[in-house]
Fold this protein.
Amino acid sequence: MTNANDHDVENEGENEDELDPDEDVRVNWSENTLALLFPPFPAPGATDSPALAPHDPVRARRFVESLGTVEEVLEQLPDRTWDDVPEPEVRADLDLVAVGCWGNLLQIVDPALASDLVVLAMDEEIARQRERHPQARIVASLTLDYGNTYDEDTVDLPSGESVKAGGWDCDESDGWQVYGDPEEVLRAIGVDRAAAADAGFDLDEEVPQRIWSNLGDLALGGHERYDDALPISVFRVRRTKQAAGDLEEMWME
């Protein structure tokens, strides 16, 4: 005898089997990066990239296993450099997570962290990482191009100061959402307005014209994101149910 729940399980499996791993994603190009910087932090105003420890693939695996977007690591692929990590083009690419661990700097590229002002996957992961790592500076950067481009940047400091700015490139200032005070973040990391402007983050600009990712770079104290020569680890993962739903909404629908 078969009950309704059995039919639901069967149908769920059939739906999963029908997913085409070669189906094109709808995003033209993207950036979905989460960075954690642990003490000791660089001196305020540092502009040169500090020396980094060698990449630690064992620690990278432990970290990817802790992500809220990951149910299980299925495969650890050969290490590669940043410039060898492809942007997602088909559905199967959405299950790849890249992680670099170089001493006190850790960076993650995970398409499941793609967010907008409705889906909050990145916000949720930042909150998880803040709880797990209260001593870290957390910097997130998102860019999603659907023809129009959505940008979002977050800086969250262990001392409690934080700022998040997000909006579409077609929006005027009143279409952007800004949470927190960027001046408080600058004061907390020891950078004044003039030095921030020299580094490319100018508070005198209108909100959509500010290069918010440069504020994140200041919080990282001279560390470069996307240094093509840095080695990283890449993992194929099974997604959590929520992450799978967010991926579908952001990348496929």
Q: What stands out?
A: The radius of gyration is 19 Å. The beta strands are 29-37, 70-81, 96-102, 105-109, 137-145, 149-156, 162-168, 177-180, 231-239. The chain is about 30% helix and 30% strand. The mean pLDDT is 88.
